[in-house]
Structure formats: C-alpha cells, structure tokens
Amino acid sequence: MPENAHHLGMMEAGRRRVLLPVSPADDDDALGWGKTIDDDDDTAAVIDDLCWGGGQRQKIPDPFVWPHAHAQATSERDLDVPVVDVAAAMHGDHAGIRRAAAQVAAACASHGLFLVTGHGLDPALARAALDGAAGFFRLPLATKQRARRAPGDVTGYAAAHRDRFKANLPWKETLSFRHRDHRISGSRVVTDYFTSTLGADFQPLGVVYQDYCEAMKEVALAIMEVIGESLGVGRSCYRDFFADGCSIMRCNYYPACPEPERTLGTGPHCDPSALTLLLQDGAVDGLQVLVDGEWQPVRPTPGALVVNIGDTFMALSNGRYRSCLHRAVVDRERERWSLAFFLCPRDDRVVRPPPRLLLADDPADQQPRRYPDFTWADLQRFTQRHYRADARTLDAFATWLGAAAATSASASQSPDKAQDTAV
C-alpha cells in the first residue's frame, strides 16, 4: 500500500485499489449533475447547431442560461497583466531569471496570471495548431464523435459537456488529449491518439499537436524554473517534479451566440492542474479574470502566451501562490478558438510542498500545511466524477479526502474494535 494511502482514502480489495466515493455534496442537482440532457429535444437541437455551425436561433434554451452571479457584466477595465520574458530561463541567463522571478512572484501572489514572451514558439506552428482546431470543429458531427469522450475520462471530444451536466452548460466544444514526452514514453502519444481515434487521415494533424505539445512542455518547465527561483526553493525543484509528467492539451471552440449576456463559454473556475499555458486566437477575446469583484478581460497579445496558476500548484506552494479564478465569455457575431496546455505531474506522484516552504528559522514563523498529500490522479478523478470545478475545488477536494480517509479507517477496524470505539 502506498505510504500516503491514508491521505487518499483508498482501500485494498484483494488486488484492486478502490477510491472511496465520498462526496462533499450529496445533492447531484446542486452541482449540475444528474441525468444528461440527451432526451431534451430543444437542447439537443441547439447542440447540433453548435456542432454544425448552423442554426438561426434567437434565444438559447434554459440549460445554457447561467445565474446572474456567474454571468455578470464585464468590467470596462482590462486586467493589468505583467509580461514576463522567459528567454533567460530557456537559455540559462541567471540575471534574467531573477528579474522574471520578481514579476512572477507579484502576479502569483495576487490573481495568479501573467503573460509570457521569449518562449521561442514557432509562429508557424502556433498558427497551424489554431487552424487545426478550427478545421476539426468544422467537421461533420459523426466524424468528431469518433473521439467522443467516455464518462469519467478527461480526453476526447465533448459538446457543451452534455455528457456530464444538465444545467449551466457551457457554450463551447472541446477536444482534449494527453501528452507525455516521447523521450520518456517511448512513443509519440499525441500522434498515436489522432490516428487511432480519428483515423490515418488525421496523422498530419496529430504531428502538429505532438510538436505543439513538445514546445509547450519545454516552455512550462522553463516557467517552473522561474517559479522555483521566485519561491526560493531552487530552479530545479519544480522543473524536476514535472519533467516526467503526463499533461493534457485541450482545443476550445466557442461558437457565436445569439444571447451572449445570458450564457458563458466556460463558467468561473480555477484549473485543477498545476499550470495552464493558453494560446488565444488574436481576432477575438473571451478570457476574463475576477479581480476586486470585477471580471476584467485579458486581451490577446500577439506573440504572448497567457499563463495561470492552477490548484495543484497552489497546493505545491502551500497556498503562497493562488489559483487563478477565470471564465470565458462568448460573442454575438464572432466565433473563437483557443489552445490550453495543462501541465500536470505524473499520475502517482505525491503532491506536497517542498520542506523549505514550511520551515523557518523562527519556529513561530513556520507555516502549517494547508492541504493534505494527494496525487494528481486522485484530484483528476475527483473533478471528473464527483465535483464540478469552480472557485473552491481544492478546499472541497481536501474535505473529500478527509471524509474518505475517515471512512477507510473505520472500515479497516475489526467489528469488536469498531464497537469499542463507538462506546
């Protein structure tokens, strides 16, 4: 049994590892879970319109309407986003890394988002990846459904998340797939996914995304060097932690919407992963961050990647760096694409802060642990099967782990011991 099994709420059932299904919320409807809306003719018709890019609807069905608190108006002020040049980290310039670290520290301690330049991403590759997403989402629905996402899985094609939720549906389509460095996996995972799932004709598109993911992984590891420097744990600390990880790539498509003020492309949430690298299509903006009670836009900046902190890294920093609470809005006339690369650790790697972030010369200054040990696999399973990611995902996950661990401990007691404990 793993050394941290008591944190993960797992029991051994013969040779089978079981994650206890203990949820912090028993009311599925409160999370927008429950039955899917396949039998809702009006919603299904709108999703068909989404998928085929057609339709002349003037109103959206109720499942797409978000509460006013989530769909509140956009601020007239753009978010003041620092621009961090990571070329120094890509090429070993120590003085440049220190300058970048100071900028990152300021951004991550407040709203958790910054822009990155100097990343070396080939503009032609970036364009090919964005155009590839646009081409994929314009395909006939039957072709896209070859990659249909299976229940509980993070990979595959999904339209409006109708396979998971029945309310607060996002006005978008997604295609998600995993990436692992081919030097570690021994194969080109992304290319293989496209050919095995969609067919041999999609091999060229798979090569584009394989190359794009390889480039994003190198940029993400360079950013982790800067973050390690900014937290005083050393440049290699977080880079080494994520070097052999299995990350996730997601292509997003936001169709034009007849009532953009009543819906969202993506609801308010923090990413469960550690770091997100977002490439926005320069023609249309949609990303917004909640700062001081206002949803402030993050406009596309030519040549720059948007980087935000996720929940996994908030746990790795013991809460010093905050997850970025963000959403995506849609446009009445224009469609939008974006590419999100989610940096994740290896599935079984235990997420805990480096000791240096917990210790202090003065015992009175020592920092208590804010979150229990966990693995990325369990956080991912939690968000896919038990909880809809929002602004409090990590806290809900910690509560869920505690309940699962307590249930596991109780189940492992002998009947007599359990009775003695009750008495």
Q: What key phrases describe this protein's structure?
A:
single chain; 423 residues; alpha+beta; Jelly Rolls; eight-stranded mixed β-sheet; four-stranded antiparallel β-sheet; 16 strands; disordered C terminus; oxidoreductase; Fe2OG dioxygenase domain-containing protein
Describe the structure in your own words.
This protein has 423 residues and is an alpha+beta fold. The chain has one domain (26-346): Jelly Rolls (Sandwich). It contains 14 helices and 16 strands. It has an eight-stranded mixed beta sheet. It has a four-stranded antiparallel beta sheet with strand order 8-13-10-11, with no helix packed on it. Helix 4 (94-108) packs across helix 9 (203-231), helix 8 runs antiparallel to helix 9 (203-231) and helix 9 packs antiparallel against helix 10 (235-242). The protein is globular and about 65 Å long. The two termini are 30 Å apart. The model is unreliable at 1-40 and 417-423 (pLDDT under 50).
Mind sketching the topology for me?
Elements: H1 5-8, E1 10-13, E2 16-19, H2 41-52, E3 83-85, H3 87-91, H4 94-108, E4 113-117, H5 123-137, H6 141-144, E5 156-159, E6 173-179, H7 182-185, H8 189-198, H9 203-231, H10 235-242, E7 247-254, E8 266-269, E9 275-280, E10 287-291, E11 294-297, E12 305-309, H11 311-316, E13 326-328, E14 336-343, E15 350-351, E16 374-375, H12 376-385, H13 393-412, H14 415-422
Parallel strand pairs: 3-4
Antiparallel strand pairs: 1-2, 4-12, 5-6, 6-7, 7-14, 8-13, 9-12, 9-14, 10-11, 10-13, 15-16
Helix pairs in contact: 4-9, 5-9, 8-9, 9-10
